[in-house]
Amino acid sequence: MTEKMKAARFYGVGEPLRIDKIPVPKLDPGDVLVEIKACGICGSDIHIVYEGVTPTAYTPMTLGHEPSGVVFGIGSEVKDWKIGDRVTIHPFLTCGQCINCLSGNSQICLSRRVIGIHTEGGLAEFLKVPAKNLVLLPVNIPFDQGGIIVDAVATPFHAVTNRGGLKAGEKVAIFGCGGLGIHGIQIAKVCGASLVIAVDAIDSALDRAKKVGADEVINPRKENPIEKIKEMTGGMGVDLAVEFVGLKETIEQAVKSVRVGGRTVVVGLGPETISLPPPTTFVRTELSFLGSYGSTTLEIQNVIDLVAGGNLDLSESITERFQLEEVNAGLERLHQKIGNPIRIVIEIK
Ligand SMILES: [Zn+2]
Ligand SMILES: [Zn+2]
Q1: Architecture of the structural domain at 4-153+295-347
Q2: Is residue 2 predicted with pLDDT exceeding 70?
Q3: Which residues surround ligand 2, an ion (CB under 5 A)?
């Protein structure tokens, strides 16, 4: 095999990624080398490249945390994988030994690192990862969908099912219908929500939300979302609100849109301090206010099974595809929201 590979590397905030030729990583005994076929780009990449909100552990670094591909090389201690297996990759590197890993919450591992943020990522021809991070990708799921599943779909799956604890028949409001929220709507429907209300300030995002199954839509620029949600739920409010935007305003709207005893889950990342209702309200109405970050490998497997079984349709989730050499064009379109992207995927040939 060739000794060098192409990789899209981040050098500094505001600078375009550079396509460098760097050495193909050497395998350690417990690792697998994956020949990457596709890698999604994400709002987190925009935070890194344009905003500097999420600094990488070092520079230059190969970005990309939504990769999928084919097993190309296997470390001497790896038993469960073989060359040619189609795989997707959980981007969280976890210790397996801390209190959260041991309790099944590896998404909040105390020494969690994320590929493409803390260590080399998937916007490259090859990626070395621990074998435990691989999930088998069935032949009926294309690589581009396999890539976005690990973050754009598994993150809202964790938020809705695990943190949100959605039960069949419950009513849900989804704030923000972009790359994550649109899948939050689909997952809420799959889980049996009786009513899914989508809230977004962009009308075309609401049209898309309707298409994937939202029962009602609200544009907060035109209507008061709290009043509308109360109206749509017989004055009660929803059982569960999930916020994918990360703004003070939308998070506070989400909290005010749940019923007495309701739950609010926040997935959107943002720097603003948020204020909660006073304890006289918060306590007496037993509100739950929860953060949600990423997912576990098991949840990625759950999502893959839903997609493979035809329960979850991701065929509309990839709005554009670019080649590795065009990665900056893809980032720019996501940054400027040109074409109202759900997910943009970089194909690696
Ligand atoms: Zn991401
Ligand atoms: Zn851990």
Answers
A1: Alpha-Beta Complex (3.90)
A2: no
A3: 94-95, 98, 101, 109
